[in-house]
Amino acid sequence: MFMKSTPLATLLTLALASTVQADPVLYTSNPVPAYEAVQAVVKEKAETNLGVITGGSGVLLRRIEAEAAAPQADIFWSSSANTLGAFEGLFEPYASPALDAMLPELRYPGDLFLPANLHVVTMLVNTDQLDGQAAPQAWADLADPAWSGRIIIADPANSSTGYTIVWGLSKLLDEATYKAVVANMVVSGSSSNVPKGVAMGEYAVGLTYETNSYAYVDGGQTELSLVYPSDGTFTSPEYAALVKNSPSGDAAKAAIDALLSKEAQIALLEVAFRRPSRTDITVADHVSLPEIGDIKTFALDEADAAANRDAFLAAWVALPKAGDVE
Questions:
Q1: What is the pLDDT of residue 5?
Q2: What number of CA atoms fall less than 13 Å from residue 189's CA on the CB side?
Q3: Residue 105: which residues within 8 A CB-CB, separation 6 or more?
């Protein structure tokens, strides 16, 4: 027997349909292995599909800004606080239950941004391209004019990786040495081109995050090595954030919870070499990377880097460099 549809029944059907939330959409600068690992965990733990739009972190943040009146993204992942701090108004705080397992020092004030993993800056060195020159061991070594055009870095205006590195160098080195290092750099519009260029032998040294460097070393290229500079390197938490007025609502929060879960962070460590932000994972149990306590680091003020971003980038653009590439 079929019941005749009534106006009230029709209204109820329409009301129920309007409450069905779309699958959340992630805007990310992370590579395919990283976001696919997260998609799998989100599918299992949050029982939802996670759509993905990729691009440079700076480009995606400006896209979210342009879409603010009608958001198309639910989650942004990833960037450092030194970049995200200038875009706070685009996001809303979320006290995910996963934060209870996070390193306290990595939490952002008010939980506006949520620490998904921890980045370490390294030099990726191609020993086949040294031409008899000693591999650099400290940042200051890169000031030698012999390195001109042989060092590649991502454009800090479009890459939080590049911004973290050049901001850190400006604080660690004296002004003359900093400018001499910058003068030797080739600037790439793409973060992924940095380790790729070194791996292909186009450059001797790439300045990038450990996760990007180690992917090539783990792939079996024995001519490549990671250098953790002896004068101290820089660490930066990588954050995920909930876009303000995100269209998928609670589904977006469930997806962030899954992204921050132990399962996701172990998967990210094993397939994408991302150091976890959680306290319940031991790096050495999963990959052959040094423990963070064995790496000399130089502390950076992320809030200062965010507040002075525009002025710093304007000064950066004016500095002489060895060249620019796509």
A1: 47
A2: 5
A3: none
- The dihedral through the CA atoms of 84, 266, 121, 321 has a sign that is negative
In angstroms, the CA 74 to CA 255 distance is 9
pLDDT-derived band of residue 56, with 50, 70 and 90 as boundaries? confident
Pick from 112, 94, 71, 76: which is nearest to 247 by CA?
A: 71
Q: Show the tokens assigned to 52.
A: 């993905």
Residues in Cβ contact with 110 at an 8 Å cutoff, skipping those fewer than 6 apart: 93
DSSP string, 265-301: HHHHHHHH-PEESBSS--GGGTSS---GGGS-B----
pLDDT tens digits, 7-30: 554 444 444 434 456 899 999 988
Residue type, 305: A
Residue type, 233: T
Instruction: Give the tokens for residue 288.
Output: 């052959």
| Cα(47)–Cα(62) distance, integer angstroms | 30
**Is residue 71 classed exposed, middle or buried when 0-12, 13-18 and 19+ CB atoms within 10 A define those classes?**
middle
Residues 6+ apart with CB under 8 A from 70: none
Contact 312, 170 (CB under 8 A): yes
Please state, in angstroms and rounded to a whole number, the distance separating the CA atoms of residues 51 and 45. 15
User: Tokens 């460099």 — which residue?
Assistant: 321
Residues paired with residue 236 on neighbouring β-strands, in sequence order: 119
pLDDT value, residue 13: 44
pLDDT tens-place string over residues 255-283: 999 999 999 999 999 999 999 999 999 99
Within 10 Å of residue 138's Cβ, how many Cβ atoms? 15
How far is residue 238's CA from residue 28's CA, in Å, rounded to a whole number?
Answer: 11
How do residues 60-108 score in pLDDT, each as one tens digit?
Answer: 999 999 999 999 999 999 888 888 888 999 999 999 999 999 988 899 9
pLDDT at 3: 41
